[in-house]
Design a protein that fits this description.
single chain, 8 helices, about 775 residues, mainly beta, five-stranded mixed beta sheet, globular
Length: about 775
C-alpha cells in the first residue's frame, strides 16, 4: 500500500525536476524527509509516473472478476457474455462468437436481466440507452460490440457501488470490461482455431493476428492492434454468423511520465442468420437443432459496432490527479425477416416467428398515408408482407471528466458525465427481398429518438487507523431528457412526439474493515435508477392526433451488500449477502402480431440471496475454485399483468435461476495445463410473452467443459512461444433448455404453447497460437 507522505514527497520532487517515488510495497507509516522517500524506493533518480499515482486512488474492489487467464484460454465458441458464466450468479443464453441470442435478455445476474446491468468498457457506457443492455433488446440478436480478442478481463461490481464505478442502468451490477492495451515489449502473434459439434451439425473457426510495438524509442509510444475473422455455423439448422473484428490501442506518455494520452478503437462487422425460439413440441419432435427451413422462415441480419475512446490523465500537482475521456459508439442493425405466406395459418399448428399481415392494403388498413398496395403487386396482403425489414441504429457520444484530490486521509473525487444518445428504429413491409424503405408508402413505423444524460458526482475514500478502516460515502445527481418521435405508419394512425426529463439522486455509502491481515469485512448501501425504455414513450403515440401522457415512472433499487473476505494462505474465500429492494419495477409484454414491446410499472419486488466462493492454489501444481449463488426473487405487491392475470405479492419473479454453482479444477506443470469446469444452473419460473408469471418451472441443468493446453518455447526458428489448446464444451452432451416462455394464444388459434431455446451439444475444438 502506498503511504501518502511518501507519495506527496515523490510528486513534489518530480515537479521540481528532481527525482523520487514510492512503490506500492512501501510499509513505513510515515516518511519524515525526502531522503527517506528516496531511500525507501530503491529507484534512484526516476520520475513518478501516472500509473503509480493512480494506485493511491484505487476503485472499489469488485465482488467478482474474470481473470486474464480465463479470457485467454476461452473456447472458440465463447463470446464476451458467455464467458461470464464463470462468475457466481451469472446465467448466459447468448451463444457462439457471433453473440447470437433468441430473446431480449442475453444473460441474468443475481436475477437481473441484461438490460438492468450497466456495461462499460474502460468505464465508458457500451449500452443501448433506449432499450438497455448491449444487445438483444428490440431485435438486435446478432450484434457484437466487443470481441473476445478486444478485452483482457472483466470486473463485476455487484449492486450499487461508488458513483465512479456504478454504470448507467446498473440496477443489479456494473460490468467493466478491461480493454486489451499495449505492453512494454514487442511481440507479434498469429493464431487459428476451429471445432465441430457432436452429430456433425455445425462448426466454428477463427483466425487472426496481433502485434504489439513495445515502447518505441524517443517517444515512449506503445501501440497494439489485432484482427480476427470468425465464421461460425451453429448447431442450429441454417443459423450462422460471420464476424470481422478490428482493434487498435495506443498509449502516449508525456511530461516525464506524469501525463498520458490513450486511444482505443474498435470496429466489428457481422453477417448472420439469427436463431429463433421454437415451439417446445417441435424441438421434442425434430431434435435440438430444429429451426424452420429457410424457404419457410428466416431472419437475416447485417450489423456493425464501432467504439472509440480517447483518454487523458495527468498529475496536476502533489495533491491533484485529473482525468478525462471522450468517447463515441455507433451500432447499426439491418434485419430482414421472411415468412412464407403459404404458412400464414401456421406450421404444424404453430405460428411462424414472423407474423404475416392481412391488413396492409390501403383500402382496409385505415392508414391512408401508406400508399403501398400489396394486393396489386403480389396478389394479397399476406404475400405482400412476407419480407419485413427492420433497422435499429443507435449510438452515444460523450465526455467524462474527473478530478481526484489526494489528501492526508482522504481521496476525494469529483466527476461527471455528459452523453448524447441517438436512435433510429424503423420497419418496412414488402413482398420481395429488396424491401424499399419509404415513409408513407410501406412503413410500419419510423422512429427517431434522442436521450441526453448528464450527471455530477462526489465521492470520498476515507482511510483511518493505518488503512484498516475505509469509509466511502458518495452521491450522484442525474438528469435524463428523452424525446421520441414517430411518423404515421401501419402501427400508428397518427404521428407525434413525446418528451420529458427525469432527475434524481443516487446516494451510496460503504465501509470496509480489515479485522486482521487476512479478514476484510464490508458493507455497502446504494440506490440506482433506470429510466423507462423507449417503448414506454412510443406506446402513447398513434391512437389520437395528440399523444397521451407518458406515465411510466423510473424503476429504482435500494441495494445492500455485506460480507467477509478471508484468506487462508494461498486460499481465498468470500461470503456475502445481497438484498435488492425494487420500487416501480418494470413489466414488459411483447405483441407478436404487431412486433411491438410495451413497458409498464408493476410495483415492488425483493431480490435477496447469498454468494460464496473459495479459490486458491493446491499441492502438486493444482488450483481450484468453487462458487455458489442463491437468489430468492419475489414480488412484494399485487398487480394486474398485461394479459389480465392477477399477480399476488409473494409470487416468484420469472426468469430468475434460484441458484448457480460453478466448480473448476486446474493443473499446470512444465508447459502443460489442464482445466475442467462445471456449471450448474438451478430451476427458474418462466414468464408468459406478456411478462407475467406463467406458473411453470424450467428444469435445472449442468454443463461441464474441459481444456487441455501445452506451451512450447522453442530455442530456434525465431518463435518465442507456441500455444496449443484443446477444448471440449458440454463434455457429457447434456440436452437442456436454457430459456423458454409461455406464448398466450386464443383457443381458436390453437391455444397456449411453450416456446424454447435449445442448448448446444458437445463441441470439440482446438487452437494454435505462435508468438514471435
Amino acid at each position: 500500500m502506498i503511504k501518502r507522505a511518501t507519495l506527496h514527497s515523490a510528486i513534489m520532487l518530480a515537479l521540481l525536476g528532481m527525482s523520487s517515488m514510492a512503490l506500492a510495497d512501501v510499509t513505513a507509516s510515515t516518511v519524515s524527509s525526502v531522503n527517506a522517500a528516496t531511500a525507501t524506493t530503491g529507484r534512484g533518480n526516476a520520475p513518478v509516473t501516472i500509473g503509480e499515482v493512480e494506485k493511491e486512488a484505487p476503485p472499489e474492489r469488485g465482488t467478482g472478476s474474470l481473470s486474464k487467464e480465463l479470457v485467454k484460454h476461452a473456447s472458440p465458441n465463447e463470446n464476451f457474455q458467455s464467458v461470464l458464466r464463470n462468475v457466481p450468479g451469472f446465467t448466459v443464453t447468448s451463444s457462439g462468437p457471433g453473440n447470437l441470442t433468441t430473446n431480449d435478455s442475453t444473460f441474468t445476474y443475481q436475477g437481473f436481466n441484461s438490460d438492468q446491468i450497466g456495461v462499460n468498457l474502460d468505464g465508458v457506457p457500451l449500452i443501448n440507452t433506449f432499450r438497455g443492455g448491449t444487445n438483444g433488446q428490440g431485435d438486435d440478436h446478432a450484434l457484437t460490440p466487443l470481441g473476445m480478442g478486444q478485452f483482457s478481463g472483466v470486473s463485476v461490481y455487484s449492486g450499487a457501488n461508488t458513483p465512479s464505478e456504478t454504470g448507467i442502468n446498473a440496477l443489479g451490477a456494473t460490468l467493466d470490461y478491461k480493454p486489451r492495451m499495449p505492453t512494454s515489449k514487442f511481440y507479434a502473434e498469429v493464431s487459428g482455431s476451429g471445432g465441430l459439434y457432436s452429430g456433425g451439425n455445425g462448426n466454428s473457426a477463427a483466425g487472426g493476428f496481433s502485434i504489439n510495438s513495445g515502447v518505441l524509442p524517443y517517444t515512449g509510444t506503445k501501440l497494439y492492434a489485432n484482427y480476427y475473422y470468425s465464421p461460425f455455423h451453429s448447431f442450429l439448422d441454417h443459423v450462422y454468423s460471420i464476424n470481422n473484428n478490428y482493434y487498435f490501442a495506443a498509449v502516449q506518455p508525456y511530461n516525464h511520465g506524469m501525463s498520458q494520452l490513450s486511444l482505443i478503437t474498435i470496429y466489428n462487422h457481422e453477417i448472420a442468420q439469427q436463431p429463433e425460439t421454437v415451439p417446445l413440441a417441435l424441438l421434442q419432435k425434430y431434435g435440438r437443432n430444429f429451426q424452420w427451413a429457410r424457404d419457410i422462415a428466416n431472419n437475416h441480419t447485417t450489423t456493425s459496432s464501432y467504439t472509440t475512446i480517447v483518454g487523458w490523465k495527468s498529475i496536476l500537482n502533489q495533491y491533484m490527479l485529473a482525468k478525462a475521456k471522450f468517447f463515441i459508439t455507433q451500432n447499426t442493425n439491418d434485419r430482414t425477416a421472411y415468412a412464407n405466406a403459404a404458412y400464414k395459418d401456421g406450421y404444424e399448428g404453430y405460428p411462424l416467428p414472423t407474423a404475416l399481415k392481412g391488413y396492409a392494403n390501403p383500402v382496409s388498413s385505415g392508414h391512408p398515408s401508406n400508399t403501398y398496395n400489396p394486393t396489386a403487386l403480389f396478389g394479397n396482403s399476406y404475400n405482400g408482407t412476407q419480407y419485413q425489414r427492420y433497422i435499429d441504429n443507435f449510438g452515444n457520444a460523450g465526455f467524462m471528466p474527473s478530478l481526484t484530490f489526494l489528501l492526508p486521509h482522504n481521496t476525494v473525487t469529483l466527476g461527471g458525465l455528459y452523453m448524447f444518445s441517438k436512435d433510429n428504429s424503423a420497419e418496412y413491409w414488402y413482398g420481395a427481398p429488396d424491401v424499399p424503405m419509404i415513409d408513407g408508402y410501406n412503413d410500419a413505423w419510423d422512429e427517431h429518438d434522442t436521450r441526453n444524460y448528464a450527471d455530477v458526482y462526489v465521492q470520498d475514500r476515507i482511510s483511518l487507523f493505518n488503512h484498516r478502516l475505509i469509509i466511502t460515502p458518495g452521491a450522484k445527481y442525474y438528469m435524463v431528457g428523452t424525446t421520441c418521435n414517430d411518423i404515421e405508419g401501419y402501427y400508428y394512425n397518427y404521428g407525434g412526439t413525446v418528451s420529458n426529463t427525469f432527475n434524481y439522486w443516487e446516494p451510496s455509502f460503504g465501509v470496509s474493515f480489515l479485522a486482521t491481515k487476512d479478514a476484510d469485512l464490508y458493507f455497502h448501501y446504494g440506490r440506482v435508477y433506470k429510466v423507462p425504455n423507449i417503448s414506454a414513450y412510443y406506446a402513447v403515440i398513434g391512437d389520437t392526433p395528440t399523444p397521451g401522457p407518458m406515465l411510466v415512472k423510473p424503476e429504482y433499487v435500494d441495494s445492500i451488500d455485506a460480507g467477509i473476505r478471508y484468506n487462508f494462505g494461498a486460499i481465498k474465500t468470500s461470503l456475502a449477502y445481497f438484498r435488492r429492494m425494487f420500487s416501480n419495477k418494470f413489466g414488459y409484454f411483447y405483441n407478436d402480431q404487431t412486433g411491438q414491446t410495451f413497458q409498464y410499472n408493476v410495483g415492488s419486488a425483493l431480490y435477496q440471496g447469498l454468494t460464496a466462493s473459495v479459490d486458491g492454489k493446491l499441492p502438486y501444481n493444482m488450483n481450484a475454485f468453487i462458487n455458489y449463488s442463491l437468489t430468492d426473487a419475489k414480488y412484494t405487491s399485487n398487480f394486474d399483468a398485461a394479459d389480465g392475470a392477477a399477480v399476488s405479492s409473494g409470487e416468484y419473479v420469472g426468469d430468475v435461476p434460484m441458484y448457480n454453482l460453478n466448480f473448476g479444477l486446474g493443473y499446470h506443470y512444465a508447459g502443460f495445463s489442464a482445466r475442467i469446469t462445471d456449471h450448474v444452473i438451478g430451476s427458474q419460473y418462466i414468464n408468459t410473452n406478456k411478462g407475467a408469471p406463467a406458473g411453470i418451472a424450467l428444469h435445472p441443468y449442468n454443463i461441464t467443459n474441459l481444456n487441455l493446453g501445452y506451451v512450447w518455447r522453442p530455442a530456434e526458428m525465431g518463435v518465442k512461444k507456441l500455444t496449443f489448446d484443446v477444448y471440449v464444451d458440454n463434455l457429457f452432451n447434456a440436452n437442456y433448455i436454457p430459456y423458454e416462455y409461455l406464448q398466450l394464444q386464443s383457443a381458436k388459434d390453437g391455444g397456449n404453447f411453450i416456446a424454447a431455446q435449445a442448448s448446444a451439444p458437445a463441441f470439440v475444438g482446438a487452437s494454435l497460437a505462435a508468438k514471435f
